[in-house]
Amino acid sequence: MNTVSPLAPERFPDLPEIGGVRVATVEAGIRYKGRDDLLLVELAPGTAIAGALTRSLTASAPVDWCREALTGGRARAIVVNSGNANAFTGRAGKTAVEHTVAATAAALGCAEREVFVSSTGVIGEPLPAESTIVQKLPGLARALASGSWDRAAGAIMTTDTFPKGASATAKIGGRTVRIAGIAKGSGMIAPDMATMLAYVFTDAAVPPDLLQRLTSRAVERSFNAITVDSDTSTSDTVLVAATGAAGNPEPDAAMLRGFARALEAVCRDLAHQIIRDGEGASKFVEIAVTGAASARAAKRIGLAIANSPLVKTAIAGEDANWGRIVMAVGKAGEKADRDALRIGIGGVEITRGGQVVPDYDETPVARHMQGQDIRIAVDIGVGRGKATVWTCDLTHGYIDINGSYRS
Amino acid sequence: MNTVSPLAPERFPDLPEIGGVRVATVEAGIRYKGRDDLLLVELAPGTAIAGALTRSLTASAPVDWCREALTGGRARAIVVNSGNANAFTGRAGKTAVEHTVAATAAALGCAEREVFVSSTGVIGEPLPAESTIVQKLPGLARALASGSWDRAAGAIMTTDTFPKGASATAKIGGRTVRIAGIAKGSGMIAPDMATMLAYVFTDAAVPPDLLQRLTSRAVERSFNAITVDSDTSTSDTVLVAATGAAGNPEPDAAMLRGFARALEAVCRDLAHQIIRDGEGASKFVEIAVTGAASARAAKRIGLAIANSPLVKTAIAGEDANWGRIVMAVGKAGEKADRDALRIGIGGVEITRGGQVVPDYDETPVARHMQGQDIRIAVDIGVGRGKATVWTCDLTHGYIDINGSYRS
Fold first, then answer.
1. Chain A positions in Cβ-Cβ contact with residue B313 (cut-off 8 Å)
2. N or C: which end of chain A has fewer CB within 10 A?
3. What is the pLDDT of residues A318-338, one digit of tens each?
4. Which one of 3.30.70.120, 3.60.70.12, 3.50.30.10, 3.30.40.10 gives the CATH number of domain A21-276?
5. What's the pTM value of the predicted model, to 2 decimals?
6. Counting Cβ atoms within 10 Å, is residue A1 exposed (0-12), middle (13-18) or buried (19+)?
C-alpha cells in the first residue's frame, strides 16, 4: 500500500530558494512515528497571500480560519500538520486552531491574522494542538532555514507515495522572479486522510488583489481540473504567497501575463503529480473537451467522463471502450448533439456523425491503451467551449486502499 | 462473473396473470447463444401506457421512438431485445427501430405508434433487426400466452445474475386489480450492456394522464432513487401498461390512492432487486436522509453519499467510516450545517452537534457493518425535507466485471 506509484517522477525536482521564505519541519508525533509531520513556513513582512479553499459545506476548522484570514491579504506564517485533519471536531477543533495560531504569532512576533493553518489526516478525532504543535513551535522557529523543499513536501504527506514539488521563473518589468511550490494529495480523501494541499511561493512583488485573481484562474485550470474519485475533501487548501524579495516594480495586470503563465504551469505540474499519485492509479488520463456550449459546459462534460467509474475501470482494463464515453457525455447534463459527437483516443478518431467511423481499426488505439499516459479527445459539436481535465484509472488498488479498515 | 449475486432472492416470485397481457420469448441469436433474447408483449386493445425514459442526451434510437409514442397514451405491443442496445448507431439505428415497429404492427394488426421498443446490450454496434427480430416476430405472435413471467424476465437480461419480478394487488372502486412487473439491470451500464429496463402491467382501468402521473411519482421514489455507480444508461426505460381487464369503474385521483401505493411498492421491489444484482455488490445499502432544506435537497445529498466511491469502498470493507459520510454531505452542494449534522448507522447514533457523540462505542456498529443489509441515517438539521435512496457497495467484483475487455 505504500509502494511508490508507478506513475511517480524519477526524483524530487530541484527547487530554487525563494527570497523571504524560510521553512522548518519536525516530528511532532501527532499520528505518524519516525517521520516529520509538522511544517512551519515563515514569510517576510509584507508578503501578499491569496488562496483557494474547499467548497465543502462541512469544511474543517483550519479552512474556516484561512477563509477569514485571507480577507487580510497578508501572511507571515503557514503551519501545516499531517495525521489529523481537525475536521468535524466541533468547538474543540476551533480551539485547536486558536492555540496553534496564538503560539505561531508569539514565536514569530506577528499578528494572528497573518498566520495560516492547515491540517490533513483522520476526520473526527480531536487534534491535541497544545500537547504537540504548540510545544514544537518555538524550536521550529529557531530551526527556520531557506530551501529544503523536499523535507517540507514530505512533512505534509499522508497516503502520498512520493513528495510533490514544482518550480518556474518569469519576468516582471524586466526583473526575473522565481516560483516554487509543494503539494500533497492522493485520493480526494484517502483512508480518511488525503485532502489536497498546495503551497506556492514566489519572490515576486504582486498586490494581494491581483495575486488572488491570478491564483483563482490558475487553480480553476489545474487543481480544480483534476479528479481521482469525484470526492471532495473537507480540508482542500491552496495558498500562494508573494514575498516581493525580487524587487520587481509594482506590476499591473498587463505586466503579469508571463507570471500568470508561470504560476499556472507550477499549479498544473503539482496537480498532475497529485493525479500521478492517485490511489491505485496505473494510468494518467488527459481528457480534452472541445466544441461545447461554453468553457464551463466543456469542463462539466470532461469531469463527467473523468468521474465515470465505468470509463475509469475500462481504462484500467486497457479497453478502448468509447461507448462508455458516449454514456458519460450523455449524463453530464450539458448541451450535446449525439449525431455530432466526435471521440478520439490516442489521436485516432473513433466516432463521427453519431456513429463509429467506417472501417474503424482498433489496433493503434488498443496499443495506446496499453501505455501509461492516455489521451482522450471529445468534440461535442455544439459550440466553441473547451476545457481539459485530468484523472487516473480506477483499479483494484483503489479498492484495496479504501476498502481496508481505518486502523 | 456469472455466479448469482449473494444478495439475490431465494427464487423468482409467483406473479399473477394479468388480463389483457400475453407474452412470448424466443432465441433470436442477436448476441447470446443458447438463451432467449427477444421478448414480445401483446396488450389488449385500449390499453393505457405511461413511462419514464433516460434523461441521457445521447439516448438510444428505441428511447427516441418511445418518447414520441408515449404521447399517444395507448399501447398494443412491447418488443424488447437483449445483446445489442441499438445506441449510438446513427441513421441505421433509427431504421432498425422502424423495421421492428412495422413488423410488430403487421403481426398484431395494430398501429405503429402503439408499438414500444427497447434494446439493451452493446453500444455502437448496428442492430441487425431485419435478419433477426423481424424474422422472429410472426412466430412470436403465434406463441403468445398468458403468464410465464419468469421467461419474459430472463429474455431481457444482460449481465444480470437473476431474473427480476414483483407483484401487488389493490382495490379501485371496490374492484380488485392486479399489478405484475419485470425488470433488468445490474450496473447502470454493465460491460456496455446493462441499462435499467422495467415493464409493469396491470389489469386496472386507468386513464393515460392519471397513469402517467402515478408512474412519474412511483419512478421518482424507486428507480430514480437507486444507483450502482452513478452512471446513466443511454437506454433506461420504464413502461407501465394498464389493460382495464379488471373492469373497475373509471377512477379519479382519489380512488387511485391504494393503486398508487401498490404501483410504487412494485416499482420499489424491482428497483431493490436491481441493486441486489449490482455489479460486484456484497451489501445492500439504504440511506435515509431527513432534515434537509427540501425533498429534492435530501435526495441529492442521499445520492452524493450513495455515489461516493469512498463511502462505497468503506462499506465493502465493513468499515463504519462516518467521516466519509460527512465528506459526502459536504460535497453535495445542498444546504447543510456541519454543527447540526447527525449520522447514524444500523440504528446507532454516531455524531451529534458537529462531532462524534461522547463515549461512542463502535462495537454494535461494526457488527451491523458485517451484515448484508446496511442502514445509514443522516439528519441534516436545516429543514424538513426527506428522501431515501438505495445503493450497493463498491468491490473488487465491480472492477473485475468492468475492467475486463469487452469481447
1. 398-399, 402-403
2. C
3. 999 998 999 899 888 899 988
4. 3.60.70.12
5. 0.86
6. exposed
